[in-house]
Amino acid sequence: xxxxxxxxxxxxxxxxxxxxxxxxxxxGSIQGVITTRARSLPxxxxxxxxxxxxxxxxxxxxxxxxxGRLANxxxxxxxxxxxxxxxxxxxxxxxxxxxxxxQVVGTNGTLKTSSKDPVLHTTVVQQADGRQLxxxxxxxxxxxxxxxxxxxxxxxxxxxxxxxxxxxxxVTDEMSAVTGVDGTFTLTDVPPGTYELRIxxxxxxxxxxxxxxxxxxxxxxxxxxx
Length: 226
Hints:
Layout: H1 2-25, E1 28-36, E2 44-45, H2 50-53, E3 56-57, E4 74-81, E5 88-93, E6 98-99, E7 102-105, E8 110-115, E9 121-126, E10 132-138, E11 144-148, E12 153-158, E13 166-171, E14 174-178, E15 184-190, E16 193-200, E17 209-213, E18 218-225
Parallel strand pairs: 1-18, 5-8, 7-13
Antiparallel strand pairs: 1-15, 2-3, 4-14, 4-16, 5-6, 8-11, 9-10, 9-12, 12-13, 16-17
């Protein structure tokens, strides 16, 4: 009886240790909100191609809800590789604006550009130092052109025909997310540990933020950009 009891105690202890090990291996998540005291900007006045573009367009460089939540910020978990970073993104010329305005792609990914507008657009992609990767004419609706994007960094997308058009592509293999119109983001399957979040926005800034992720649990963060 004593041997049986000892054996059962050993088995139970092993089971507890296995559960603890499994919990530690289980990833957590980061759920956050990006806020700002900045305000959305007034519309852009359109001076030509008004039949296609309209008389004015929203300035999307700062999009903020009435409650101060910021869209189009890129949140990156520094030093943590994404399990499957996207390898292709698209830049659609739609209503004389790039859609989407901000997106993330893995290194050596591909950009596909196209158009819905019956007017000449160009898709000009530049690195942070101003070096141009390519300049593509997109003359008719439905045409589609693909180009490689290369190494990590922030790329600016513009149109030489319509100077107000702007888009941004963050090239990285690290775990990243773009905030939605409500300013929220979620990073899932994050290994337990303490990390820094890097936040990028085309017009606003914020210092990196330290976060600690527990196994199997969400970590809530609110970050203000200025």
